[in-house]
Write a structure and sequence with these properties.
Elements: E1 8-11, E2 14-17, E3 28-32, H1 36-49, E4 54-58, H2 61-73, E5 81-85, H3 93-100, E6 112-117, H4 122-130, E7 133-138, H5 143-153
Length: 160
């Protein structure tokens, strides 16, 4: 497998781009998933494990992109932690990421893109890596998977 230059994290026998380390968890998180039940459970789990000011939830990539474009027009920053489901109607996760990369947020280099998938096909993972997904988590999210993610983001912190 040819990997682009950079540092990687090995997790469950899969290599991922190294996450952008943070001093603290971001205030704003974005969760994009077409499954309402997953969104409800993921939001509860995120709130339990981290102290986020806002969790923006969208059921498709198109509404999430509209939100981001409005934030950009208003001079706001992009959420620094974005969970993106790969299989969604209207605009799927891949199409979302391709369009997201055309936006020019001032804090874009601090954003951690997290792919959510039920597929571990090599071609899917390679596509996510090529679109700078720095971590790929199986759905549904679990306390363990989020704790591992947060510990990678904030190695000095402890999470319940």
């Amino acid at each position: 497998m040819n990997l682009p230059p950079g540092r990687y994290i090995k997790y469950n026998h899969i290599l991922y781009f190294e996450l952008t380390r943070m001093d603290k968890l971001p205030a704003n998180v974005m969760l994009i998933d077409d499954d309402k039940i997953n969104n409800f459970l993921n939001e509860r789990l995120l709130k339990k494990l981290g102290s986020f000011d806002t969790i923006h939830i969208f059921q498709d990539g198109e509404s999430a992109l509209h939100f981001l474009q409005k934030e950009l027009e208003d001079g706001k920053e992009c959420p620094e932690l974005m969970f993106i489901d790969m299989n969604m109607p209207v605009i799927n996760g891949i199409e979302f990421l391709e369009t997201y990369h055309t936006l020019n947020f001032p804090n874009k280099d601090k954003v951690n893109l997290i792919g959510l998938t039920t597929s571990l096909r090599t071609s899917d993972i390679d596509k996510l890596k090529s679109l700078n997904c720095k971590y790929i988590l199986n759905k549904p999210l679990t306390k363990n998977s989020l704790t591992n993610l947060f510990q990678d983001l904030l190695p000095q912190a402890e999470f319940n």
